[in-house]
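This follows on from our talk about sequence and fold. I would like you to pick a protein and set down its sequence and fold. Go ahead and set the record down below:
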Amino acid sequence: MATIMTIGEQRRAGEAARKVGGYSELIRLERERREAKGKGHVVRDAANGRYSFKPGAAAPKK
């Protein structure tokens, strides 16, 4: 299945991928988010710096 993305969407996806450690990590986070039905938030593990999606209530706004 092919996905058509605008230039802006490609840039945002690229920035997000660089932030989390690559496209494979971004895809893993998206899969975790879908499994949680979007309810939760992204957290970073202080021990290893890896991002993960934590199901539950959304993170408080800063």
Observations:
- The chain has a mean pLDDT of 88.
- Residues 12 and 18 are 10 Å apart (CA to CA).
